[in-house]
Design a protein that fits this description.
alpha/beta, 31 strands, 2 domains, 423 residues, Spore Coat Polysaccharide Biosynthesis Protein SpsA, Chain A, globular
């Protein structure tokens, strides 16, 4: 894979993941207690022996840049690197990136070199494991100009994706963004002999938003045409004028685009057989090494949950939840069906005494709290006897330290929730 470069798109504003993206970019959002979303595509690349990786950033990129620089360092005898390319003003253009294709066009000169033949375009906010070597080798076997990663979906889901119409050789004939009605029904394809599930009703091929381009094809499309977006402009045009094929991915894949999808994808990782195996030594997920102490658990009841390192849990009940690094949870508190992201730091004794004198809760969750169907972002201070359950079943709400999205309560980073507060 020495002739392949990976380009990870991480520059979007992430408005649908707000308030988790209030102070960070979307790929920097914490995942599964100790990772960040960007760790998924980068780890897939490393496990696929792709070591030339660029990450394109734009909004709230400081924490993402810091995470990448502190985490991914290859040795000096390797050709490998993970470099961040931020939006920048040039003589030719003084605007922000105007879309996914525009971002790649304006940084193309950084990664198109004579020893590169294929460019792998990835998203920074998907959850899945894939061996990209199979993807690229398939692209070569098909003598394709472009190959698109696709995943089988059922009819009820198909209307929310870009759906491919293919021939029997898996060459893409047409692309339809979120088709409905009779058009959608006309795009059915018999996938039963290609997927593992028996009696599956997955009869549609949806775009995963990941692509392999021949270097010359990508350069031609971006330099000769003013396309701004891959999915809406580049791909539909290329299907009419180039050899474009579908690569069928028969595994778990989730687009972490909304609070609901983020919440559900995280909690699925607590299942006895999780949708993505984080425990496979052959395909590890890499992240920043923090050298934290082991978690301390005192008189707790924990079921179907993930507890990260550095936590202090004292007399808590935790059910189907994810507990992030350095989390502190007090006596008698119940965490149910929730994500607690933990903290970026420990407070020392002087800080604890000062804050308690001022009536400010410690970082973490106090005593006798009940938290259910919620996301508690990092460095949140929750006092004693706090209830966060959305008992009124509010669908959506915006307040200073409280947001509700699709019925899920989100407490933003660095918020302070006083004693006896009820949500």
């Amino acid at each position: 894979m020495r002739n392949v470069v990976a380009v990870i798109l991480g520059g979007g504003q992430g408005t649908r993941l707000f308030p988790l993206t209030k102070l960070r970019s979307k790929p920097a959002v914490p995942l599964a207690g100790k990772y960040r979303l960007i760790d998924i595509p980068i780890s897939n690349c490393i496990n696929s022996e792709i070591r030339k990786i660029f990450v394109l950033t734009q909004f709230n990129s400081e924490s993402l840049n810091r995470h990448i620089s502190e985490t991914y360092r290859f040795d000096m005898f390797s050709e490998g690197f993970v470099d961040v390319l931020a939006a920048e003003q040039t003589i030719e253009c003084r605007d922000w990136f105007q879309g996914t294709a525009d971002a790649v066009r304006r940084t193309l000169h950084h990664f198109v070199s004579k020893n590169i033949d294929y460019i792998l375009i990835l998203s920074g906010d998907h959850l899945y494991k894939m061996d990209y070597r199979k993807f690229i080798n398939y692209h070569i076997e098909k003598n394709a100009d472009i190959t698109i990663g696709t995943i089988p979906v059922v009819e009820d889901e198909a209307g929310g994706f870009g759906i491919m119409e293919i021939d029997n050789n898996f060459r893409i004939k047409s692309f339809h963004e979120k088709p409905k009605g009779e058009l959608l029904k006309s795009l059915k394809f018999d996938l039963s002999k290609f997927i593992n599930e028996k009696n599956s009703n997955k009869e549609f091929l949806a775009s995963m938003g990941i692509y392999v381009f021949n270097k010359e094809t990508l350069a031609e499309l971006l330099k000769n045409y003013n396309f701004m977006d891959f999915g809406k402009e580049v791909i539909p045009f290329a299907i009419r004028n180039k050899r474009v094929f579908s690569f069928l991915f028969d595994g778990y894949w989730s687009d972490i685009g909304t609070i609901k999808s983020f919440f559900e994808a995280n909690l699925k990782l607590t299942d006895a057989r999780p949708v993505v195996d984080l425990y496979n030594a052959d395909t590890p997920i890499y992240t920043h090494a923090r050298f934290l102490p082991s978690s301390k658990v005192v008189s707790c009841k924990i079921n179907n949950s993930i507890v990260s390192e550095g936590c202090i849990l004292n007399g808590a009940k935790i059910v189907r939840s994810i507990i992030g690094i350095r989390a502190k949870i007090g006596r008698g508190s119940e965490i149910i069906n929730s994500i607690v992201m933990g903290a970026d730091y420990y407070e020392n004794v002087a800080e604890l005494n000062h804050n308690r004198f001022e009536g400010i809760p410690d970082v973490g969750i106090g005593n006798n709290c009940v938290i259910q169907n919620a996301i508690i972002d990092k460095n949140v201070r929750i006092g004693d006897n706090v209830t966060i359950t959305n008992y009124k079943k509010i669908k959506n709400l915006d307040k200073d330290f409280l947001y509700i999205r699709d019925g899920i309560v989100v407490i933003p980073k660095n918020s302070i929730i006083p004693n006896n507060f009820v949500i």
